[in-house]
Amino acid sequence: MIERAVVLTKHNLITLDALPQKIVDHQSNQLIVADQTDQPLSSLDAIEGRYIRYVLNRVDGNKTEAARILGLDRKTLYRKLKDG
What we know:
Elements: H1 2-8, H2 21-24, H3 44-58, H4 63-70, H5 74-83
């Protein structure tokens, strides 16, 4: 793919036009847990709690919607919020 982009580009810079459409359209579905490599490792419970709070923030605190997105029963979400 890199060789193709180098050959197809007409400039000193590889632009999106030189890349295959599936690369241009790619959307990552990976969750980035930490943004710094020197941070101490977190427990799974701590990571889960941060992600639950992140999802709740994104849905403006709507617990029903957050539970749906997280694939949890609302009661389970409430329990995780209470425990964490």
